[in-house]
Amino acid sequence: MPYFKISALATASVLLGVAAGFGAFFPLFTQHIRQISEGSSGVRPEDARRSDAVSTVGVMGDKSIQEAWNASCLLNCNGVGVCNAQLGVCACQAGWKGAGCMEKDKRPCSNRWRDAGAEPAVQPSSWSAPGWLASRCPGICDEDTAMCFCNGTYGRRLAPSSSPPGAEPLQEGRPMILDNCWPSKGEDGESVDHGMIEPELLFGSQGWCETEQPAHKCACVLDGLAGTLCEVRTEQICPAQCQGYGECRRGFCKCHPGYWGHDCANLRPGCPELPSAAAEKPWLAPWSQGVMRQPELRPRIYVYDLPPIFNSRMLEYRSLKTVCTYRTFAEDNYTQWPDWVYRSEPALHEMLLHSAHRTLDPEQADFFYVPVYTSWADTPWFGPAGQTSDGGPGGPRVMHAARMLHGAQQWLAQTHPYWNRSEGRDHIWLLSHDEAGCWAPNSIWPSHILTHWGRLDKDHTSNTAYDADNYSMEFEDWEWAPGGWTSLIQGHPCYDPSKDLVIPAFKSPPEMENSPMLGAAERERWLLAFFRGDMGQHRAQQYSRGIRQQLHALAISHDWFGNYNISVGGYNETTGPYSELLASAVFCLVLPGDGWSSQAADAILHGCIPVVIMDNVHTPFETVLDWTRFSVRIPEANITQLPEMLRGIQEEHGHVLQQQLHKSPAWNRSCSHNCNGVGVCNAQLGICACQAGWKGVGCLEKDKRPCSNRWRDAGTEPAVQPSSWSAPGWLASRCPGICDEDTAMCFCNGTYGRKRAPLTSTPEMKPSSGRHKRKPRPPSFDIATGEHGESVQHGNVEPELLFGHRGWCEAKRPAHKCACTLDGLAGDTCEERTEQTCAAQCQGHGECRRGFCKCHPGYWGHDCANLLPDHPQLPGVSATRPWLSAWSQATSQHTPLRPRVYVYDLPPIYNSRMLEYRSSKGVCTYRNFEQDNSTSWPTWQYRAEPLLHEMLLQSQHRTLDPDEADFFYVPVYTSCFMWPIYGWADAPWFGPSGHTDDVGPGGPRVMHAARMLHGAQQWLSQSHPYWNRSNGRDHVWLLSHDEAGCWAPNSIWHSHILTHWGRMDASHKSNTAYAADNYTEEFVHPEWAPGGWTSLIHGHPCYDPTKDLVIPAFKSPEEMKNSPMLGSPERERWLLAFFRGDMGQHREAWYSRGIRQELHALALERFWFSRYNISLGGYDETDAPYSELLASAVFCLVLPGDGWSSRAADAILHGCIPVVIMDDVHASFETIFDWSQFSLRIAEADIARLPEILGGIRPTRRREMQQQLRKVWHHFRYSNLPVIRSASNKLMESSSLQPSSLKRPDAPPFEQDALQTILQWLQGRMRVHK
């Protein structure tokens, strides 16, 4: 039979140069390759040092060199750690933790996992106690590492108690690690789980622990020990062997004085360079070349010094010296090569530590490598935040490994600037486990992922046959995984070929001993095809996608070996050395296993043509090299034709790679179950936006927000309403009637009560409303007494007035009327139904449901602005509801003006859900529908939040195509969340990841608001490409709360922040007098905030004038009714200066920085009103209309409050000269307009001189500033919305009927308003971005 005689495959040689080149950065590995080549009869391939695996990354430009680091650490790390001179924190060896490594960190031997809490379970007092873990110890346990040693003559002898921390034991002792060292019986003779050795053979006079030459020998598997009796001490394994500048302690480098880093590569400035340990230990010479202080080659790669728990601690904790490494020291310290399948994890790390591409200066790095050792099976228990302090046992091991990666990412983001500046896009992670890329946490997904598993399908489930690695399997635990864990990883493919790279498995020189590619004699390739491995006969069906099982069955039933010389079988079915058989085959099969397998590297490194049988999976370097030139691909459906296909292939033939991914330009994705009738399908992403009360895929799960009298103490389920109204405890949502558990709103339960929809109703069917029973502020309408006449906390209405025959819930004309505050209700008895408030009123193409737009068929988006392709455009609803004509313009198909702004459709929890949850229609909005659907103007302080969102939705600058956008607006309603949503009921809360499913109550509301913003950012980076391509630098956020910019999470800080608070000092603390808003206060909770929260926000100023903008507050036309700027008759400005507001008499001393308090005291003590006509006082101290007084003053003070206040807008919009008294704080648009032309600034230190300073301003200068105000005032009002224009016109028309001897200013165009000013500023920022 004519088979190919192959002496060498040129294309495979190219790939060999890459795959085998794992060792080119590694002198000892290269030396072994050359030894094999020189000892063989073939031709040696050329050295491929610069063509290998590490050198295939791109090249970037130069960066500056950072100054030397020389930070010190507490107590010199207690002698058991190494001080990181960059961060000033200790890296502690196993057994120690905390600042200065002062706390013990026990890992006890044990027979079980703990049931709850943070402390690990300990060793039982009796060996015969039930239960088993591999660390269970019949001798002396090293509680630093959970390793077991003898306790007899040859047992462990601990260092004296007076020894310094970390002192080595006086005698190491013989280890008792594996099952051949576990006694089979307990103290009283009963059998013991997993024990297999008679106790006499361990503890008797001739036993392992007692005699020099024992009758039974336990395995000597611990790193650093060798010989049949563990009598030989060998070198232990550490990364790069500490570069010769430290002592290796089973994975942890205890660096010599002056040196630091996880491989002791860094040298403190001024410290002399010491000789390497290789002078005394020659076996270290290949590992202790030292580190080049300047890298030779590009790209320059910085290798992070992570906390030990992410890498070196894994080596300290390992029980077998042949795992977690690709090399080990045997007797006489010569090198052995373990065959651990995930060896690339430590190998690539070590190669980069030795590489000529490595830089010790992160400022000059092109890329950043993050060495996390996830592939060790016994991963410590990582919690939801990626910390070991908030996790516990249980769940699949991939859950803990994913959390481990997330924890490393969080640490990077919090301790170094490099992650945040690019959102990790210049970072590199190696995920070497079976399906590791599939369960990578979303937080690291923007990075470059090096993987062995190039699975391409986006909708993927786990194929492993090992349950502990099944990433599709959810796991919930009330304490350690209260919301499950899979949300941490969902939403990305296993591998993205546009940014990731599939790399080959590591193969040691002995594994290639018969390869002609390394110079071994060429063999006749008598096998047509070859595969040896686990054939899955005893594995689950999904193992290897069933491929190995099917091939094995076919090979046996059709006698492929006898008929075709195709050898396919298990480890005990094919005889002969593996390397020899690979070198004897023409084709070698590349098949999946539990995920990836190493057969591609095996084939190529032996000159065997790879035959890839795994659909939609990239092989190593498939995006770098043209695999069609040296491999064959066979679809899984064609497995039965394998012999015929291989026999028909010619030597030069290659198989064309299959389909490439493409993106559909039109969005028309469908959603599960049509969103259950209670949601809107996002046709771009194929996910549902669910209205309140529903969640999950397809909006199929109930999402309850019960009324309650308390917050929960633990867990994820919100607290519910007590059965008795008189039960102690109070929250504003507490309900004496019928609770709407979708929104935590309370309704009557009598004649005029809520009527629930029938049980047979569809999910979207609503009940009849009933009368509302709750007011959003202090509960002045709550029941005063309980069922038995006892008084009720916060109650003040007699039950008879609510439930009696003349009560609110029973009578048509009740004797007592509750406030009708709920959106959509009006009238004295809530008898009128009005339009409800939604963003842009759903553009006239949807029904507004108290904030949520339920779009009409074909329309989608949070304002129903998007139309499915080929769907007819429907008329808006204004024909039948004319009050909506201002809102039903529907976003036109025009080419948007520049700058083009794309407004994100965020999940409802970030905006519309806040409107659904609000208890009063007077908050979270700048407008309302009243009786007859007329517009009213609430005075909620933070109205810019919904206003700017709505203005952009209706702006001619809005684009519905994100690919043409210049900027991206992220509409998150944090101010609405903070009041009135926060604390009304026991939901929602926002966790460390920004999600609401893994957290509970407690902590300041600014913590939850900051997490809310972080969650929105995380969602953007995981679901859209636009954030990641610029790290959010072309994104715009409005933070409207008092000091919101100060507590913005670091994750959004690269964006443009629109704010009202222009505080510029870099080192800042909160000035609020409201404790719930104090962002300086730390909050720690063992379950919901185990590591605190302030690290989320630390490290940036409140406002950066180079990228952010201070914008004015919104003022409605009604609030300007006496303003001459809007047509009201000009008044005599008889007041020299004016300010009305909270003067801080009953507030904390730091409120308003003490400015209001000092001014108030001075005004009273020195009679400023009577002497100077300076009116400064509280709301109850000046009784004239506010707008009238503003229009009657020459100067109006602009003072801080809990943060910003709206006084600048008040002044300017009334033609009153602003007097700014707040040091180092920018006022609105101060980076756009020259405020010195129309305002004054007075230093806080000069407050007492206020009358003198103001009185000294010449009248001509006053007139000049007033004239300048007339030129700019319109930039400080928001007017470019039909409803605002209409109200303003009515106001000016009414003003024109009043006699006036003074000329009114010409009304400038409505378009030249605050929004247009913001957009023009963004237009200028476009040049910066370009």
TrEMBL record:
Report how it sits in the membrane. Single-pass type II membrane protein
Protein name, per record:
EGF-like domain-containing protein
Q: Name one GO cellular component term.
A: Golgi membrane
- What InterPro entries does the record point to? EGF, Exostosin, Exostosin_GT47
In terms of Gene3D superfamilies, this protein maps to: Galactose-binding domain-like (2.60.120.260), Laminin (2.10.25.10)
Instruction: Cite the entry's keywords alphabetically.
Output: Disulfide bond, EGF-like domain, Golgi apparatus
Q: Where is the EGF-like domain positioned along the sequence?
A: 667-700
| Source organism | Apatococcus lobatus
